[in-house]
Amino acid sequence: MNPKPLPPHQQLVGRDRWPVVGERAPRHSDLPWTITVGGQVWTERRVDLHQLATMPQTTRRIDVHCVTRWSKLQMEFEGVRFAELVAAPNGQPLWNPQARFVSFVARSERSHSTSLPLQELLTLDPLIALKADGESLSSEHGGPVRMVVPGKYFYKSVKWLQRIEFLSDDRLGYWESEAGYHNGADPWKEQRYIAASLGKQDAARLIRQRDFSGRDLLSLEARGLDLEKLHASNSLLRNADLRETNLRRADFRGANLSNAHLQSADLRDANLRGADLEGADFSAADLRGADLRDASLFGVSFGVVNADGGLSQAALIDATTKITTTSFDALTPQQRAWLRSQSVTLF
Length: 347
Ligand SMILES: Nc1nc2c(c(=O)[nH]1)N[C@H]1C(S)=C(S)[C@@H](COP(=O)(O)O)O[C@H]1N2
Ligand SMILES: [Mo]
Description:
Elements: E1 11-12, E2 34-39, E3 45-48, H1 49-54, E4 58-65, E5 70-81, H2 82-85, E6 101-106, E7 113-117, H3 118-124, E8 127-132, E9 135-136, E10 146-148, E11 161-167, H4 174-178, H5 200-209, E12 291-292, E13 304-305, E14 311-312, E15 322-323, H6 325-328, H7 333-341, E16 345-346
Parallel strand pairs: 1-5, 2-11, 12-15, 15-16
Antiparallel strand pairs: 2-3, 4-5, 5-8, 6-7, 6-11, 8-9, 8-10, 13-14
This protein binds ligand MTE and molybdenum atom (MO).
Molybdenum atom is lined by residues 21, 66-68, 154-155.
């Protein structure tokens, strides 16, 4: 059997791994759970967990693709079809003609949400899932009940589903409005991020000052620049283009560099402690002397994986590169073996 194709720039996590991404727990999980269907509907619908469990259950194998570049293929989810929940008992749709978008809202601290166009949802045929791989969903993965929307990056699948709201106009979700995630979320088109959050002039000023500390610099373009000793602690550099950039001795403590493009960057002696490096690309980057302790490394790449499993354009890593065991455990077995062969220092 041919291996299933992966969307561009995704990598498989180990079979036994399922990373927890975003919020880790619902709010008031001790209180009874009901899901309401409201907004642009003829009549509201409320369904409790017991009712949900007694509706027809569908089992489906779905490929999960996280925007931070890890994928898990053919996960088995079980639950109620979205179309089933948003229909009246006579099978008629609950929504009225004004409805064009649907927002899914979580019972969580920040009332996390995401939205999708109604027509697209009807085609994608998502599940309101109660189980994953044969077991009740664990709390950190969205239990007791979460959305699973196939064909989209996983941020379109809300954990701890509490409300389904039909809307006449779109309302951007949490990641889409706070983190610059692309509202389209098509993994095959790599719709990961919207364009830069900062105007070119402001970006140029910060680059001159070499101080990014605490700034939101989503999708910043700084390719090939000299940013030696850059101050960038706690900055938000998701999707930033830092290819071939001189970042020697830069301070990225606690920064968010998820999906940053760091190919061939000079990161010698850079401080990346506690940074979010999920999905960052370090191909051919120089990481000697770099400190990656307590950094989050899911989906990171250290080179281009060849068909034979070997690594080309590998990052430069040696015994002066520091990584914590807990971050190390998030890597694929191949990456761990490769890092060991480079005699990286583990803490
Ligand atoms: N309520 C809620 N749902 C959420 C998120 C979140 O932070 N809060 N994160 C999203 C993102 S970005 C991803 S990749 C998946 C992660 O699901 P998992 O933790 O079960 O892997 O949940 C999505 N749904
Ligand atoms: Mo995600």
